Amino acid sequence: AQTVTQSQPEMSVQEAETVTLSCTYxxxxxxxxxxxxxxxxxxxxxxxxxQEAYKQQNATENRFSVNFQKAAKSFSLKISDSxxxxxxxYFCAYRRTGNNDMRFGAGTRLTVKP
Amino acid sequence: DADVTQTPRNRITKTGKRIMLECxxxxxxxxMYWYRQDPGLGLQLIYxxxxxKDINKxxxxxxxxxxxxxxAKFSLSLESAIPNQTALYFCATSDLPRPGQGSTxxxxxxxxxxxxVL
Lengths: 114, 118
Known about the structure:
The structure holds two protein chains of two kinds. By secondary structure, chain A is mainly beta.
């Protein structure tokens, strides 16, 4: 079974600073997808960024970028120029190719200090 | 209107009652999922369905059942609710992941149904 581990239950960052959230996963597959979802207090789950395992280039979406280390099975999320609106729970998720489900980590609660 | 709609948004019930959470979607996706969220545990998969005739158990299906009434509708039932089923429940949909074709099988979530069992 695939498992996703987020080792940081809570993180905090000063507004305008950079923060990195960690995620590791366990799999024997070579093709898969990785995701970061954000859950603000409104509880809506919002996709932040995604990475296809066969792509070596790290995904980037504006202030959000990932460091994908396939051999180490690591997928960290970097948030640059943190804003108050970035405060939320962040979930790392893994999905194999084909007809399969998605598995989530336990989440990291990010606090942004003004 | 939301692409994935869950009803009710909030529900308080008593132990032993039967509860149904409903989900409908306008994404046109064949794949639908029910997840449960508890603090510190992330999202755990209860059931998933890849088409109307396909239902699969997830990690924590005991005490739950589902019905896929149509491509757009997927309901979750608690036949006899108990207090440790108090949680936030999410319905989600997805397309089939297609490597190199821009489809990664990301999940599209409803707004969640908060259930409290007293």
